[in-house]
Design brief:
Number of domains: 2
Distance between the termini: 67 Å
Helix content: 40-55%
Order of helices and strands: HEEEHHEHHHHHEHEHEEHEHHEHHHE
CATH architecture of the largest domain: 3-Layer(aba) Sandwich
Structural class: alpha/beta
Radius of gyration: 23 Å
Length: about 425
């Protein structure tokens, strides 16, 4: 019998984690050995510490930690590699990733013993969020900390990834050839039309980011805008951009929790990529608060990601929860619509943009990789790895149909009637 190499034993360990005996990738061990089917993407395991992480966290979180720490790396196209891995075993199933069986854990332990990877649990990479000591989930203090973890990474870093639009949500593409900047401008304009903005309209932009929606609404539709965010860094750059656009009399950027806004009524409210941070238990309050801030007949556009497959409950032990969107929760589209209707709002329109978000994410990954050295220097190598992993994996999840993103347009009863047909905003 041929002697097993490091790569052979790593293959058995990875198979135990994924729940498959047929690996979809080649593995390169830290000693240079190779194992796996020829012609498939190559994953390099650079350190025994990667295997130790899998031993302590044998699932998505262990794999993610090893990747962020640089102990596992991808050689070649990141999308092809992630697609291959996610096509087999537990990662191919919708819903949360199941843990290995007792037998598979023994295989994993045996591989770790033979490769000298036994030891104490490695410290998580510093990019991992730890909000457990900051009050209860979705308290104002903890929500502010969660937002700071994700958005206060550095405005210069985000500008490399997002480009001049500085829009961090799904764009609207006429075709894949449209280009990211034009697609983002089209999305902002679509939101303004759906909300029926006109000169003198008063708009509340909840989760205003770096001010792009507020600037567009004031500049192109004559709206007066209040933009709110919990990110100090976002607000600082948003105010600078507003001033540079000559719109300080039209746009007010605040660091403020949506629950603290008390200067309604507004003619319209945009919530773009913000509801994912609210939390299922807080959603009725979110709907009631925004409804109370609308004038009769006023419109709310809620643009949010939805989990389309399996259990949508919050799991604190996923890569996304620990590294990307701590305390974030996704609701199914039906649940979101039901909550908006239960809050007394009338649904005017629902538009699914799933394929648009896949294109957007791929464009962000392309920009990140084009500016990799600069992005890593502006933050950390680990932070850049977090963004590449989450955006590439998310693009594949949107393409598979397991996640979607939807714009739900609703209105508060009373006031003027909405247009008879959607032609007012399509």
């Amino acid at each position: 019998m041929a002697r097993q190499t490091v790569a052979d034993r790593l293959g058995a360990a990875l198979g135990a984690v994924l729940g498959t005996t047929e690996l979809p990738v080649r593995l390169r061990g830290w000693d240079g050995s190779i194992a796996g089917p020829p012609g498939t993407p190559v994953v390099a395991v650079r350190s025994r510490r990667a295997l130790r992480r899998l031993l302590w966290s044998p699932g998505q979180l262990g794999l993610g930690r090893a990747y962020v720490a640089g102990e596992i790396d991808v050689e070649g196209d990141v999308f092809a590699t992630f697609a291959a891995i996610s096509s087999v075993g537990r990662l191919a199933e919708s819903g949360p990733m199941a843990t290995p069986t007792v037998r598979e854990r023994l295989w994993l332990l045996r591989a770790a013993v033979r490769l000298g990877a036994i030891g104490p649990e490695p410290t998580p990479p510093p990019e991992e969020a730890d909000l457990g000591r900051i009050g209860r989930r979705h308290s104002r203090a903890r929500d502010a900390a969660a937002i700071a973890h994700h958005y206060d990474v550095g405005n210069d870093f985000y500008s490399l990834v997002l480009g001049p639009s500085m829009v961090y949500s799904c764009a609207v593409w006429a075709s894949p050839e449209t280009g990211l900047d034009a697609a983002q401008a089209a999305k902002l304009d679509l939101v303004c039309r759906k909300l029926g903005l006109a000169p003198g309209s008063r708009l509340l932009d909840v989760g205003c980011g770096w001010g792009s929606m507020a600037i567009h609404a004031a500049q192109h539709y004559g709206a007066t805008v209040v933009g709110i965010t919990l990110s100090e860094e976002q607000a600082r750059l948003a105010r600078k951009r507003v001033a540079e656009a000559g719109l300080t009399e039209k746009v007010d950027i605040r660091v403020q929790d949506y629950r603290a806004v008390d200067d309604g009524p507004f003619d319209a409210i945009s919530s773009i990529g913000m509801a994912e941070h609210v939390g299922r238990q807080q959603m009725p309050r979110y709907v009631a608060q925004l409804t109370g801030l609308l004038r009769p007949g006023g419109r709310l556009l809620n643009h949010a990601i939805a989990w389309n497959a399996g259990d949508a409950t919050w799991d604190p032990d996923t890569f996304i929860a620990r590294y990307v969107f701590p305390d974030g929760e996704l609701l199914a589209l039906g649940e979101m619509v039901g909550l908006l209707e239960a809050g007394g709002l009338e649904v005017l329109d629902v538009e699914a943009l799933r394929r648009h978000y896949a294109l957007t994410l791929r464009a962000w990954v392309e920009r990140l990789e084009q500016n990799w050295d600069a992005a890593a220097a502006l933050t950390t190598e680990g932070r850049a790895r977090v963004w590449r992993l989450y955006m590439a994996a998310s693009a594949l999840t949107f393409e598979s149909g397991n996640m979607g993103v939807n714009q739900v347009l609703v209105r508060k009863p009373g006031g003027e009637e909405p247009p008879l047909r959607r032609t007012a905003w399509v």
